[in-house]
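#onboarding

Welcome to the new folks! Below is a worked example of what a typical request in this channel looks like: someone posts a single protein sequence, and someone else replies with the predicted structure as tokens. Don't worry about understanding the tokens yet, we'll cover that in week two.

Example request:
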Amino acid sequence: MTTASETPKAPTIDMKFELVVIPVSDVDRAKAFYTTLGWRLDADFASADDFRVIQFTPPGSPGSVIFGKNVTAAVPGSAQGLYLIVSDIEAARNELLGRGVAVSDVFHHAGDVYAGTDEPYLFGRLRVGGPDPDRGSYRSYASFKDPDGNGWLFQEVTARLPGRVDTSGTTFTSSTELAAALRRAGAAHGEHEKRTGGQHDANWPDWYAEYIVREQAGEPLPS
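Example response:
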């Protein structure tokens, strides 16, 4: 049982997670692959013949990946379950297919059916082909690997769970994400107008804003 004296204090400074180290065996091959993905090359630094570090940042991401020579002792290909959050799983998959990258079909997991932890499964849950039938947020995936076998997952997130975003404000990392949110708000507002007799709502900007903020915060949506 946790007592008041054992309750952790709220942190007083920001701690922003910004870098993940990817272990690779061939630095130039890895650089070519992540360039093919369309990620931004931030740095390529070398020191003598025994050290090199390369940094890439995915589009719209606040965090980056680094790899290189003598950067990590981890076994090349051992980085698995690296998540890339996207607002449209099909669009993200098609983007990489168009760049010549092998990507799995979209899949979801079979509820609480656990069957193991190897590649056909996700957190021990059996993979089922196709997106989540209800297209629920956090429930549709696609996977791909870099040349060393480091494993990446696209995860479709359209509405954040409570506490997963700063509810003091709504933030979008790209125009694509904002456009997708506006489309969802527009569809919901169309249903709202049907319920209210189909009359034009002059306050639709306020309705859209409330819908988007509530959706991001994981709060009940306006009806």
